[in-house]
Amino acid sequence: MLMRTSYLMLAAAAVSMLAHVADFAPVGEPINNVSSLEQRWVDLGTDVKVSDPVPVPAVHLVARGKKKSSSKKKKTNNKAKKSSKKKKSSSKKKKASKKKKGSSGGTFKGDGTYYNAGMGSCGKTNTDHDMIAALNAPQMGYAANPNNNPNCGKYAKVKGPKGTVRVKIVDTCPPCKKGSLDLSPAAFIKIADLAAGRVPISWSWD
Predict the structure, then answer these.
(1) 117-142 burial, b if ≥16 CB within 10 A, otherwise e?
(2) pLDDT at residue 142 in the model
(3) Alpha-carbon span 33 to 17, nearest angstrom
(4) Could you say which of 29, 101, 135, 170 would form a disulfide bridge with 120 (CB–CB 3.0 to 4.6 Å)?
(5) Number of structural domains, the chain?
(6) Where do the segments described as Disordered lie (predicted)?
(7) Beta strands per DSSP E along the chain
(8) What pLDDT does 105 receive?
(9) Displacement of CA 21 from its chain's centroid (Å)
(10) Is there a single domain that holds both residue 23 and residue 111?
(11) Residue 101 within a domain
(12) Are 121 and 200 in contact (CB under 8 A)?
């Protein structure tokens, strides 16, 4: 800005000098007195000071390749987040499956009786010597095809006054109340005497 002002002052001084020279020289005649022209230049005092140029600050350029690397890092971070989400969802599924398995767990209490085995509702034929039992109707549940009942083939650990026995569910006991089991004679004598006929029991899925 200072340099531009100096140039303007110099141009104005030159114009003024030419105007003064024109006073001494008639129109149409050449100016031969060079020394007088120089004296005019000195008289006008055209001392122009040009300041040093203003330093321009250096500009730091950032390489574009770094931005690409940051985008790659973001992508890898996104993949890591997705994998962690999958792990969380799989762990949630495992917990849900565990809850489903445990929903039918626990200890049940009811009456223990015995019956003469034969063809059961699960579609299998058994004898009185087999360690089997018929599950009460409320817990056995209803199935369109009783042979495909999910409780068929499950094992129960039964505890009575005399001991404990492990039996397989192969039939349904319609008159039995919830928590009760109707056992084969061979299984019943493990927990009580046959003469008792009916005894209190507690049992759980095994």
Answers:
(1) beebbbebebeeebbbbbbbbebbee
(2) 86
(3) 14
(4) 170
(5) 2
(6) 62-107
(7) 107-114, 132-136, 155-159, 164-173, 181-183, 199-205
(8) 72
(9) 91
(10) no
(11) no
(12) no
Q: Smallest Cα–Cα separation from 183: which of 124, 139, 135?
A: 135
Residue-level length of the chain? 206
Closest to 170 measured CA to CA, from 133, 139, 130: 133
CATH number of the domain at 170, please: 2.40.40.10
Supply the pLDDT for residue 143. 83
What is the rounded CA–CA span in Å between residue 171 and residue 115? 11
DSSP sequence for 130-148: S-EEEEEHHHH---SSGGG
Closest CA to 22 of 40, 10, 42: 40
Which residues in the chain land under pLDDT 70?
1-104
Q: Which two tokens stand for residue 99?
A: 């809850």
Tell me the CB-side half-sphere exposure of residue 41, using CA atoms within 13 A.
11
Residue 18, amino acid: L
Give φ, ψ of 179 to 5 degrees: 95, -10
For 115, the domain range is 107-205
pLDDT, tens digit (0-9, with 9 covering 90-100), for 79-135: 555 555 555 555 555 544 444 343 457 999 999 999 999 999 999 999 999 999 999
Cα(204)–Cα(7) distance, integer angstroms: 108
Alpha-carbon dihedral angle through residues 143, 148, 149, 150, given to the nearest 10 degrees: -130
